Amino acid sequence: MKKVRSGGGWPAVAYTFRKAQEAGGLRKLWKAMRSKNACKTCALGMGGQRGGMVNESGHFPEVCKKSLQAMVADMQGGIGPEFWKQYTPAELKSLTPRELENCGRLTHPVLFTPELKRFQPISWDDAYKRIVIKLKELSADQTFWYFSGRSSNEAGFLLQLFARLYGTNNVNNCSYYCHQASGVGLTSVTGSGTATITLEDLDHADLVFVIGGNPASNHPRLMRTLMQVRRRGGQVIVINPLVETGMVRFNVPSDARSLLLGSEIASLYVQPHIGGDLALLTGIAKRLVELDAHDSAFLQSSCDHWWTLKAHLLATPWEEIVEKSGVEATQINEIAERYAQAKNAIFSWTMGITHHAHGVQNVQAIGNLALMRGMVGRPGAGLMPIRGHSNVQGIGSVGVTPKLKDAVFQRLQNHFNVSLPTTVGRDTMACMEGSASGDLKLGFCLGGNLYGSNPDANYAQQAIENLEMMVYLNTTLNTGHAFGLAKETIILPVLARDEEPQPTTQESMFNYVRLSDGGPQRLAGPKSEVEVIATIAERALGPTEDASASADDAPINWKSMQQTGKIREAIAEVIPGFQQIKDIDQSKQEFQIGGRTFHEPKFPTGSGRAQLHAHELPALRGQGADQLRLMTIRSEGQFNTVVYEDYDLYRGVERRDVILIHPDDIKRLGLDPSMTVTVRGPAGSLGNVRLHAFEEIRPGNAAMYYPEANVLVSRQVDPDSKTPAFKGVVVTVEREQLAVV
Ligand SMILES: Nc1nc2c(c(=O)[nH]1)N[C@H]1C(S)=C(S)[C@@H](COP(=O)(O)OP(=O)(O)OC[C@H]3O[C@@H](n4cnc5c(=O)[nH]c(N)nc54)[C@H](O)[C@@H]3O)O[C@H]1N2
Ligand SMILES: Nc1nc2c(c(=O)[nH]1)N[C@H]1C(S)=C(S)[C@@H](COP(=O)(O)OP(=O)(O)OC[C@H]3O[C@@H](n4cnc5c(=O)[nH]c(N)nc54)[C@H](O)[C@@H]3O)O[C@H]1N2
Ligand SMILES: [Mo]
Fold first, then answer.
1. Which CATH class for the 95-177+391-587 domain?
2. Residue 323 reports pLDDT greater than 90
3. b/e map of 193-226 (b: 16 or more CB within 10 Å)?
């Protein structure tokens, strides 16, 4: 496959037309894309009341391939009852993630038990009954509740409320496998777990760091912003072991000049080793001190622990920094000098930073660097984790975490006049371990693909198989429905947000809350998420039919909670900064959540000052003669465990069963490019893998595609965020036989 020399551009435009055909014509797709609903893909956020493809600054058109893919997938036909006669779970297992997604939209509740041998369509009533019987049979702490980040604030709030009143805090979301290290890290730095800036602040930056991320593929709409930084004469410094084509050059489709001529993105591209960021960030900080380019006045007036950090930086030897980061001192100096000259710097990062056993420390080190030049607590500068799922941040805000913030806990109890459990809830990995050990017996997943997103895929499969019941609320089929089967598995089909009968809300990574109008149901069968949750809650916790108590005596009238407006009333009362959500469906006023953007150097920490952190540098792993450091990453053609295309356009890779490896390593390891290899990792091995000679990756490091590579990844998590080290996998590679060409 010929590698493209730039990201975006005409291929992206041509793709739009191809996708339009699949969706039944450009007009139909256009109408769907312009409807007043928040975009379904990443958390950069667009759409809502200003109409689809508009960002919060009002810019139009904002387009990306991902949003088209997600929309077209939801516009597919339905899976009919005959499908389930045809496909047994064994046959579903043989389908690729792409084939599973292309089976169509889920339309019937289905039940699987090993005795039935296949999924069988059942009525909604039957499905509810089975779930409720099981919930009544079990004790609450034998259950767990996993949420992906696509569902609305209303569905998220309602389900966590139900789980807690049922009696458990085993409530968590995909963030534990994603940006949890950012949330934990940022909270320890500023007292707040999200971005410190708004979208508008980006318009004033003259330096943007992009660390451990590939927004050209994964957040394409950020590319316009990066292009504008360069046009203003600003700089973009990319830190990534892999040279991502789209981060070097990108043709922004919504900008005529850029579309035709292309735009240079990175002004400096730095390639550390995988896991070398903490050493590199420490090196830049040390150099800033040596250059006397730090802001002593700010550090003393607005930060705690400066003297400890300074002493630590001065005591850390350059040899150690260079060895552990893989970056030469001259290049570290170059970065520090450019940063020293910046007036407004913004630090952005994604999974290359969080998917490590020292993910939180990485985030804290980014915080140090920003604070050292007073880049947090004023307009135009700050910290920006680039979030994943379109509403993952909202799901977290409305209480989908094992432990509620103290204020939320109190207000929730007061608002509903209930008492909530105070047990320590389980994070996502702890839920997998509890399932494997038999402590947990029922899982309930609001969206997502818990099996597919887990490290150590074999273990994840066994853990879920060990459960007595698994309930999935999904829009389409995924590998979890083939491999993640409990003794009784129920899949409930739900509506996508632009098909909801009532308005819902979502929160972007800039803490901006959008209102989605919903829209007509595309297919008969799926139900609204809130309707499903409220019905189960009512049947499980509401007054029983023969009891004398009326619905009014129950602390919560679950039936009324089928109204999203009613749920928003509660969110407005309970979640700090969300007061305006109460009448958003009337006012149509989308809003910025209060108390999270820092344009003044005052922080909600104990001392009111930002916190600096000093860390020992972790050893650079995978240095053995036969070893490689492996990152497991996304291709351009997938959204998480959902694969839309097997090829990876910008990296020029045609298939997914490959390991991207530098030609020097192919030689060093005595491999033959015409042979397939077995890759061995800490959790397992994967055979029949093809070598893809890849000049763009730093030698000593390699890349494979997630979720397929998850059989290799160990369950080791960052102790502070409980996030697996999806990018810090040490592997060996062995020759197999000649590949069949
Ligand atoms: N097209 C598309 N868009 C998406 C998604 C998708 O699957 N597909 N998923 C969404 C979600 S949930 C998320 S969380 C985001 C993910 O967005 P990203 O974080 O951009 O996605 P990853 O593929 O995990 O890629 C991580 C990047 O980090 C680099 N990297 C790996 N290890 C290291 C390291 O140790 N240090 C440094 N500095 N860099 C490293 C890799 O080379 C790669 O460029 O995207 C969101 N948007
Ligand atoms: N090795 C490795 N593993 C990883 C990662 C990695 O980089 N490497 N990345 C991690 C990251 S960042 C993340 S976020 C997780 C992803 O973990 P998840 O969020 O659990 O997984 P997704 O693949 O995004 O879930 C896709 C499914 O969501 C369902 N869906 C889509 N829209 C809706 C909706 O509106 N409502 C409902 N109810 N369902 C819907 C569809 O059925 C679809 O099959 O994976 C993690 N795992
Ligand atoms: Mo994510």
1. alpha beta
2. yes
3. bbbbbbbebbebbbbbbbbbbbbbbbbbbbbbbb
Average pLDDT over residues 451-472: 98
**pTM of the prediction?**
0.95
Q: Report the nearest atom of ligand 2 relative to the CA of 149.
A: 19
For ligand 1, mutation pick of 353, 363, 633 (most atoms within 8 Å of CB): 633
| Nearest residue (CA) to ligand 1, atom 35 | 274
Are 94 and 87 in contact by the 8 Å Cβ rule? The answer is no
DSSP-based three-state secondary structure for 292? coil
What is the reported pLDDT for 554? 66
- The mean pLDDT value of the chain amounts to 94
Decide: 211 in ligand 1 pocket, CB within 6 A. Answer: yes
Question: Residue 43 and residue 508: Cα distance in Å, rounded?
Answer: 5
Least confident of 49-63, 496-510, 598-612: 49-63
pLDDT beyond 60 at 549: no
- Under DSSP, is residue 341 helix (H, G, I), strand (E, B) or coil? helix
Contact (Cβ atoms closer than 8 angstroms) between residue 152 and residue 391: yes
**Among the atoms of ligand 1, which is closest to the Cα of residue 349?**
19
Cβ(697)–Cβ(662) below 8 Å: yes
Q: Domain residues of the chain, as ranges?
A: 7-74, 95-177+391-587, 180-386, 627-739
Nearest in space to 495 (alpha carbons), one of 114, 106, 126, 209: 106
DSSP secondary structure letter of residue 275: T
Q: What is the pLDDT of residue 538?
A: 97
How far is ligand 1, taken at its centre, from the CA of residue 664, in Å? 25
Using the mean position of ligand 3's atoms as its centre, give its distance from the Cα of residue 632 in Å.
Answer: 13
Do 180-386 and 627-739 fold alike per CATH?
no
Task: Answer yes or no: is the C-beta of 174 below 6 A from any ligand 2 atom.
Answer: yes
User: What is the spatial distance between Cα 497 and Cα 565, in angstroms, rounded to a whole number?
Assistant: 15
638 lines ligand 1 (CB under 6 A): yes
**3-class state of residue 432 by DSSP:** helix
Q: Which of these ranges, 2-11, 53-62, 83-92, 680-689, has the smallest mean pLDDT? A: 2-11
Q: Are 455 and 630 in contact (CB under 8 A)?
A: no
State which ligand 2 atom lies nearest to the alpha carbon of 449: 20
Q: Which of 611, 578, 587 is nearest to 507 (CA)?
A: 578
C-alpha of residue 137 to centroid of ligand 2, in Å:
30
Note the CATH architecture for domain 180-386.
3-Layer(aba) Sandwich (3.40)
Write out 159-217 in H/E/C secondary structure: HHHHHHHHCCCCEEEHHHHCCHHHHHHHHHHHCCCCCCCCHHHHHHCCEEEEECCCHHH
User: Which atom of ligand 1 lies at the shortest distance from residue 214's CA?
Assistant: 20
Q: Is the pLDDT of residue 70 over 90?
A: no
Instruction: Please state, in angstroms and rounded to a whole number, the distance separating the CA atoms of residues 87 and 99.
Output: 13
Distance (Å, whole) CA 694 – CA 729:
19
Range in 12-26, 71-85, 367-381 the model is least confident about: 12-26
CATH class of 627-739: mainly beta
Q: Give 202-261 pLDDT, tens digit per residue.
A: 999 999 999 999 999 999 889 999 999 999 999 999 999 999 999 999 998 888 898 888
Length reported for the chain? 741
Is 218 near ligand 2, meaning CB less than 6 Å away? no
Give yes or no for residue 224 CB within 6 A of ligand 1: no
CA distances from 648 to 232, 438, 570, 705, 717 (A): 31, 40, 44, 10, 28
